[in-house]
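pls design
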């Protein structure tokens, strides 16, 4: 079986081809085409097939991580969308909750108010009310009011509609009927409901999630349709699967229906790829640092399991998102990040990026602003003959020119300015990792850092040193690890049902009925994807809290029909989870089951273990010596640094730093007072010196 993984980044689009039967692997990179990412995707697939002598019709699966939805939200370039909601609740998605993003700032940016997904004039209200606790109808839905609202939205140029009613997670009848009416009045529009996207309590988060789906829905639909059509025109019969934020892949149909599934699509693939790399070398406590051209993405793997966000911590561009997502933290830090001075004269790096076009000055495409890539060139860590395996040149003079201009403004030497850029960028990433580890009671010193992405190996060792992490793993193909992660996952769907049941009075019949109903729905969904029931594996989770708390913990639910004994196991799981998370538990307190979740997986073919590295010799790998600049203590020093070709490195031999290791998709920097060796898996292990 032949498979291709495609990951679209801000600067480059990465490809990995795997022939599962032969155990062969090939990689490729092309520049991302921001105006239409599918052009770069198709260009890369064609080139990859040609280089490996593969007919496109032989490919069985194309697995794709896309940034289309994420970028639409980050850039505010989604659809003109409307909302239909209950009378009197027009402003739920504006008011939000009493928590402010920054409690003490009087000038803070509140995304849902500053950049509303649905403008107020496009939020229409209609009579009708579903009420708790069982979802009975208190006020019938005014169908004529719904039609009138739809006609008004259509006349105002709206092409996407979110239907969001109170308590629809208990009874979706009003939302479903309103959707039918809107589709009759606006047959060309994208229409979704909050109960379909996320049938859970918390109306602000649920309404905003539906609003996000409406905001990105038309763009995702067009992109997927265009890509699928282009694949067919190439003669491919491969199954297209799209990476979802929950760590699984979904069919194009599911993604079009629930576009919010893709809001961290490519990022999830990167964390999965990092977890897979660590597993090859027996490491299951990992911090993944995926640095591309525009952003740095951070994931945490504890005991082989990728951590997931809780319902109150999941967001995209500041907007709350009530959907299952891997816990991935993203900051604006990458090879294209621009160095600049703020109004107070402070030296900053990012989050603005030069992107793929024009890119850093060193790319020779007209970039005129100093970037991280330019700094690495000036410091001797990137050389023209090494970049992208020599397929893309670097303009050293242009890089030095923009760094010189910055240095002059800062009254520094060019080397001080360039090294300052790297130090600031690395500190930003180290602080971001602290926020996901130290601030959550996790000691990063007990982890290995997986440095991946095109720029991860350039910065990984210095970021690790700031965190006292002793080991850095650099994957065999770090620049395409996200694409490789796509080939390690399964088809995966999630469903949730809100419960609000106390441990002191549990309705077991209702719990078992809801679990069975969710599994039946998931079986039906997989049947539409031509997956038989016997190929599906199920797991269940519950969002639980002590009575009176406002935050839930995700706890595994025992398999099978639940009885009193199974509930005792569930309560024990929750007490243990609370102890781990907060350092204490209250065994005598009532526990509340807030949501039940059912997760279904169907296995896809996966990458096996990497072929053992053949290994060469240090002499064969050595290419030349270059002058590079590193910070030592409070000053800068120039070092004669050995440059090695990664493909010829020996296996198991410790090589001292400073060193630079080159390959097509990335460059690895080993600082002074560090050493590295190639492991049998093909990964590089960098070991830092004294971290006391």
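designed seq:
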């Amino acid at each position: 079986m032949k498979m291709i993984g495609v990951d679209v980044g801000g600067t480059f689009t990465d490809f990995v081809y795997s022939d599962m039967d032969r155990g062969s692997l090939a990689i490729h990179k092309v520049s991302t085409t921001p105006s239409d990412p599918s052009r770069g995707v198709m260009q890369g697939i064609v080139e990859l097939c040609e280089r490996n002598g593969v007919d496109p019709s032989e490919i069985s699966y194309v697995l794709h991580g896309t940034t289309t939805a994420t970028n639409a939200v980050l850039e505010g370039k989604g659809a003109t969308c409307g909302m239909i909601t209950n009378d009197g609740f027009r402003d739920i998605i504006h008011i939000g909750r009493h928590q402010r993003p920054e409690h003490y700032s009087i000038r803070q940016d509140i995304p849902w108010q500053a950049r509303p997904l649905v403008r107020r004039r496009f939020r229409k209200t209609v009579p009708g009310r579903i009420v708790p606790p069982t979802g009975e109808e208190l006020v019938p839905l005014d169908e004529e009011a719904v039609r009138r609202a739809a006609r008004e939205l259509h006349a105002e140029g709206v092409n996407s509609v979110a239907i969001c009613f109170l308590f629809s997670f208990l009874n979706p009848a009003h939302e479903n009927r309103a959707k039918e009416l809107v589709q009759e009045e606006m047959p060309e529009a994208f229409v979704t409901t909050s109960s379909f996207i996320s049938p859970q309590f918390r109306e602000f988060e649920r309404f905003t999630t539906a609003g996000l789906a409406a905001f990105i829905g038309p763009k995702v639909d067009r992109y997927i349709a265009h890509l699928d059509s282009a694949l067919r025109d190439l003669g491919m019969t491969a199954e297209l699967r799209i990476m979802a934020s929950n760590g699984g892949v979904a069919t194009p149909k599911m993604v079009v229906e629930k576009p919010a599934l893709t809001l961290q699509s490519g990022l999830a693939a990167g964390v999965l790829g990092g977890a897979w790399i660590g597993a090859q070398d027996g490491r299951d406590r990992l911090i993944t640092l995926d640095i591309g051209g525009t952003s740095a993405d951070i994931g945490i793997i504890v005991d082989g399991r990728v951590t997931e966000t809780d319902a109150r911590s999941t967001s995209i561009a500041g907007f709350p998102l009530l959907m299952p997502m891997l816990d991935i933290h993203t900051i604006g830090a990458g090879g294209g990040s621009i160095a600049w001075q703020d109004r107070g004269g402070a030296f900053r790096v990012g989050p603005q990026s030069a992107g793929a076009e024009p890119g850093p000055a060193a790319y020779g495409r007209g970039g005129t602003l100093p970037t991280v890539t330019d700094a690495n060139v000036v410091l001797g860590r990137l050389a023209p003959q090494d970049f992208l395996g020599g397929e893309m040149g670097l303009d050293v003079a242009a890089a030095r020119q923009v760094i010189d201009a910055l240095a002059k403004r800062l009254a520094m030497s060019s080397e001080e300015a360039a090294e300052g850029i790297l130090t600031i960028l690395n500190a930003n990433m180290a602080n971001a990792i602290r926020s996901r580890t130290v601030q959550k009671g996790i000691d990063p010193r007990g982890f290995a850092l997986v440095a991946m992405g095109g720029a991860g190996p350039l910065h990984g060792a210095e970021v690790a040193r700031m965190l006292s992490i002793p080991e850095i793993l650099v994957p065999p193909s770090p620049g395409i690890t996200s694409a490789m992660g796509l080939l390690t996952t399964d088809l995966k769907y999630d469903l949730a049902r809100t419960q609000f049941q106390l441990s002191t009075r549990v309705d077991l019949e209702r719990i078992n009925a809801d679990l069975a109903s969710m599994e039946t729905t998931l079986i039906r969904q997989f049947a539409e994807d031509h997956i038989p029931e016997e190929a599906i594996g199920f797991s269940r989770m519950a969002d639980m809290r002590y009575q009176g708390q406002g935050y839930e913990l995700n706890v595994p639910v025992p398999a099978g029909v639940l009885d009193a004994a199974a509930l005792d196991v569930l309560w024990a799981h929750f007490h243990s989870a609370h102890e781990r998370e907060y350092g204490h538990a209250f065994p005598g307190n009532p526990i509340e089951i807030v949501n039940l979740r059912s997760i279904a997986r169907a296995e896809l073919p996966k990458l096996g273990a990497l072929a053992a590295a053949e290994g060469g010799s240090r002499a064969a790998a050595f290419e030349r010596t270059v002058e590079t600049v590193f910070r030592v203590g409070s000053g800068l020093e120039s070092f004669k640094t050995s440059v090695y070709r990664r493909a010829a490195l020996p296996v198991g031999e410790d090589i001292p730093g400073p060193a630079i290791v080159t390959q097509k998709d990335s460059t690895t920097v080993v600082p002074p007072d560090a050493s590295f060796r190639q492991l049998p898996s093909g990964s590089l292990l960098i070991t830092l010196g004294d971290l006391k």
